[in-house]
Known about the structure:
Helix content: 25-40%
Number of helices: 8
Largest sheet: 8 strands, mixed
Strand order of the largest sheet: 1-2-12-3-13-16-14-15
Radius of gyration: 21 Å
Shape: globular
Distance between the termini: 53 Å
Amino acid sequence: MNTKILHTLCSTPTAPFAEQHVVRYIERFAAARPKLKLSRDPHGNLLLELPSSSPTRLVFTAHMDHPGFIADRMLDNRTLLAHFRGGVLASYLPKSKVLFFPITPTPSKGEPGRPRPVSATVLTATSDQSDRPDYPTHATLRVSQSIDPGTPGMFDQGESRIKGDKFYSRVCDDLAGAAAALTMLDILAKSKTPPQATIAVLLTRAEEEGFIGAIAASLKPRLLRKTDNLIAIETSAEQPYAPQGKGAIIRIGDRTSVFNSDLSYFLTTQAESLAKSDKSFQFQRALMPGGTCEATVYDIYGFRAASICVALGNYHNMDKQKQRIAPEYVDMNDWTNMTKLFVHLARHAHEYQPGHKLLKQRIESRYDRLKHLL
């Protein structure tokens, strides 16, 4: 499977509330594929849609941000005060290397060149959250040159690369998930036989600060419909019973809630069907309590939501064995299997019938055969 989108997107800088670089990439992605329709809401969430005449719409959702820094102001000509957004323990930050990525205006013609990143080193990390004192909200950094307010910064862990069967990058959560969804759209948009259902990808902002974009998209929906079937995509902290290398994971719940059982059952049966036709395809099914994902938000606001993820190493750049900042990583076979499952689900989305209809038929058929023994 082509991994160009994965490499490019995961090398794109981002931070909560500072997703401008990713937004530009999505805009170019959509412009290069005329079959796709790009929409946005007033909060900056994006929807890429491959339309059809069917009223059925399957929406894959992923977030565009990752824990990181946002420049606030220069304290002197070498010291920067920055906000820190996202769940990384404060003890990991001091002395860590950071790159800030300036945002340049888009010229009237052509694509802007990416400015050279500015290097920095974290001096201090502090929190103004009484309920979460271990998680920083501000940092001071020694910088190589002045940095403009609003510039996003990321841990300097290199751009994307593959070593063995692992994909390493300064960000996998959740740009690797978003990349799988975009790869699916790329495959479908080039296909001569488009899906019978409408397929969409919702890309949200500021998930790492408490699902702010997803909440905004749910409270007064401009991009979502109550009839949508939602699949939240994540790279979720690896669990002993759902290890890397064993395939994509149908995530039936997170730390906070369990997801729609009806839609989760449909995902499971479709994964089983794919495994029969493609012997290289692997999947798992597990509750992943390493964090909370956007499926919980959509469930709260009355949407039908399930989830698919891959197991993530060095969650939020924290190498807990070595107690230091490190690149995140996922298993390439897991990512490939997740993308395969997305394409398969898109092609069979029109078969989904809410209300556990297929499961009822299955169990009632057995009941009819054996009820005389009661």
